[in-house]
Backbone:
């Protein structure tokens, strides 16, 4: 009980706040994962996930965080060599995952804060060296939305190349039309814009991706997409899943898809993002992310006025908010370069405009006191 009283409202870019109804949904009694009851639960989740992803592809579920599916995408889909589009800490991690899985990998790299441009991907794919490209849709460390629509037009010119997209911090907060964009694997963690407790991830998988997996022997065990596919068809999972999460996922998908509605949800995220960006400018600060590529789910702001973010964070904690003071390694790099550090404001999940307004008012009061 005291933990609930002490709960700090999360304004960090994940995990995000989870509504009480969803937390309660996690407290169902356990059921056997090989029962009809389980298959019925899983069977209800599948079409709702497909609507969220705008796809007819399977949308697999894994009891792991999103990093698990990042590894799965690499293990199952890269045969020849992968090109990783790196523009921040998480896209860099995907490159490292590729190397640690023993794959051949190269990167297209832009300065952190900038977005990957489609022609860069074209230049790389033209070489014929690659059979997969990894793009991080929302680079959470820098608040950048990479232009996956435009990049998809490029990738479509190369039918042997699989398009792998990390939508960990954007799925559920903005429209990602998986089938229209021809995304072969689109992966997401549920603790971000889907506003569920952490510990589960979801990924759509195209037929082309399954076909590629068939040609690869060392797909590993836990993240073997072909095993996941086999059981998915029977409304099951290969191993014991987090059943509590699945109850919560079903309820939250009902809310996202039917109650709030996808278009309304995306509009709310856009409005919150616009509000935060305007607020930053009004307070004489600059967005760290490249103009025109700012994320709808998380804003990364340059602390150009040199506010003492550590003490502001403490003040906000005292008021019941958990604030973000920027991605650590990015800020260390910026400090070394003598540049202003960054902080992020998450506006994703089930957060409402009034939550953001209250939070920004608190920060502004602290700013005005000259911290
Ligand atoms: C863009 C992005 N990719 C990957 C990850 C890793 O996801 P997880 O922590 O769910 O494994 C994160 C986590 O914050 C992220 O923001």
Residues:
């Amino acid at each position: 009980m005291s933990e609930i009283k002490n709960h700090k409202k999360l304004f960090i870019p994940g995990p995000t706040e989870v509504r009480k109804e969803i937390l309660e949904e996690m407290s169902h009694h356990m059921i056997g994962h090989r029962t009809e009851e389980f298959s019925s639960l899983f069977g209800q989740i599948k079409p709702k996930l497909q609507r969220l992803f705008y796809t007819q592809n399977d949308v697999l579920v894994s009891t792991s965080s999103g990093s698990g599916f990042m590894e799965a995408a690499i293990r199952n889909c890269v045969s020849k060599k992968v090109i990783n589009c790196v523009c921040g800490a998480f896209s860099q991690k995907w490159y490292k995952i590729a190397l640690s899985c023993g794959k051949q990998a190269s990167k297209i790299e832009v300065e952190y804060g900038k977005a990957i441009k489609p022609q860069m991907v074209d230049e790389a794919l033209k070489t014929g060296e690659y059979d997969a490209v990894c793009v991080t849709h929302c680079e959470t460390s820098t608040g950048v939305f990479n232009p996956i629509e435009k990049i998809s037009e490029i990738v479509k010119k190369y039918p042997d190349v699989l398009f792998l997209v990390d939508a960990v911090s954007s799925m559920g907060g903005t429209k990602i039309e998986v089938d229209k964009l021809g995304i072969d694997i689109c992966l997401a963690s549920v603790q971000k814009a889907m506003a569920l407790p952490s510990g589960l991830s979801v990924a759509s998988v195209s037929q082309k991706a399954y076909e590629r997996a068939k040609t690869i022997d060392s797909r590993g065990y836990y993240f073997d997409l072909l095993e996941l596919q086999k059981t998915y068809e029977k409304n099951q999972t290969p191993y014991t899943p987090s059943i509590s999460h699945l109850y919560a996922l079903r309820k939250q998908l009902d809310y996202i898809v039917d109650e709030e509605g996808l278009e309304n949800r995306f509009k709310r995220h856009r409005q919150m993002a616009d509000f935060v960006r305007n607020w930053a400018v009004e307070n004489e600060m600059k967005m760290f992310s490249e103009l025109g590529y700012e994320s709808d789910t998380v804003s990364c702001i340059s602390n150009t006025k040199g506010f003492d973010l550590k003490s502001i964070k403490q003040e906000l904690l005292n008021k019941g908010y958990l604030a973000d003071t920027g991605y650590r390694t990015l800020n260390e790099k910026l400090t070394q370069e003598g540049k202003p550090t960054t902080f992020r404001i998450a506006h994703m999940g089930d957060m409402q405009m009034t939550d953001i307004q209250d939070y920004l008012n608190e920060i502004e009061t602290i700013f005005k006191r000259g911290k």
About this structure: Residues 243-282 form the longest helix (40 residues). The chain is about 45% helix and 15% strand. The chain has a mean pLDDT of 96.
